[in-house]
Amino acid sequence: MKTSSNLSDTLKVFGMQNLMLEAELARLRKSGIDIYHTEQVQKDDVVDTELFEADIIVQARIMADFYVLYYSLENTIRRLIAGRLLEKYGSNWWEDKVPDRVKIGVAEKQERERDTPMSIRSDDPLTYTNFGELIGILNANWSDFSDTIRSQKAMQQVLSQFNFLRNVIAHSGELSEDEITRFKLLLKDWFRIQS
User: Fold this and answer.
1) Does the pTM of the predicted model rise above 0.85?
2) What radius of gyration, in Å, describes the C-alpha atoms of the chain?
3) Is 90 exceeded by the pLDDT of residue 107?
4) Given this model, what pLDDT does residue 21 score?
């Protein structure tokens, strides 16, 4: 039988082990090691999630996985574009190789953002592009990407469909079972058309 003193000691040891584990996880993150440890937003940091209906929270957590995949894909494409055009055309690639309509659209987004009290997201204009504009950049410079992406038409089809799904994901909608299947297939399609 445990006495209250033994129970107290056990709780202290448990608490210390937890603190040591948290410190080690923080040290690993700071050193650049991604351990895929999801940090939970503390209720006190934002708002008590219990204020929302449970089914909405459950669906939000499901949709969060699709946001991670979408975010990763969109930024992978941006990185492909920036890396390739910088390599071939130097630091003025944005001015020289991006279609005017894309540059105008980005400049308008940047201006709207400057007119708000929000932080400026980036100095890089490419971060302001959407999928339609990324397709426009790839199309305008197809000869620079034809060795990496096997078909311009396939690229247009895949990214255009992603753009439709993006609207559901970005505007807090729910993907139906068919759209979840489509999303997964489109991810596979994107990697399949890479040369």
Assistant:
1) no
2) 23
3) yes
4) 66
